[in-house]
User: Fold this.
Amino acid sequence: MPPAVIGCLSPTPTGQPACADEGLLHGEELPLLGNRLAHLQEYIEAVKTTQRQVASLEQQMHAAWPHWSLAPVVEGLMALRGVKLISAMTILAELGDISQFDSPRQLMAYLGLVPSEHSSGPSPRQGGITKAGNGHVRRILTESSWNYRFPARKTRDIEKRAEKTSEAFQATAWAAQKRLCGRYQHLLRAGKVKQQVTTVVGRELAGFIWAIACEVMGKHHGSRAGHGLSKGVHCAADSRNQDRYSNPESVSSSQGMRGR
Assistant:
């Protein structure tokens, strides 16, 4: 056994432990053990320092958002499942006024959530998602989409966030939850891996986010069907006919922490 390994093996027939390194009995390895403990303590302190920094930033975000010009949009987005204050503020801080996009499809393309295309003559072929645009927001949406792996339901936490919004926003959030939860299970039953499923769900979630942002900012929806917030819902639902995007050869995504 290498001398760097510190510790003892199972007891010998005499009841005494058989040490991996006899030098340990004489204290020859104690300095090495002390160095390792010191390094471990440094790692622990580094993690604690980072956690304190994250907590401080979150406190600052909680204090700043009521005075932010996009605070009404933040409230609207928080009615969605998987989108809490940190996620909503991050999305808006990265993208600004989401209503500047002419359609949900344009927003999805900007975030790199649509498949790439490799065409050669008359034979178009689609590859993995482009991953163009803002990768931070794409990661937030992918992480938030993991929340839709459970059946649709109005939990106390979701209702508490949604009660600060209008009935129209609550109706949109509930419609989004029913559709995306169903979409998640449908794709799983179709044999798609979870990473591919979260990419598809995250893309459609971007459509609902666009709809809510447009309604808050008073922008007219350019959808072909419905009116008010329902237009955004139908825009997001247009991706129902894009199952080709969820093929194993055409969708890729990365795992991460869940949406906060």
The radius of gyration is 25 Å. The longest strand covers residues 123-129. Strands lie at 8-11, 17-19, 115-120, 123-129.
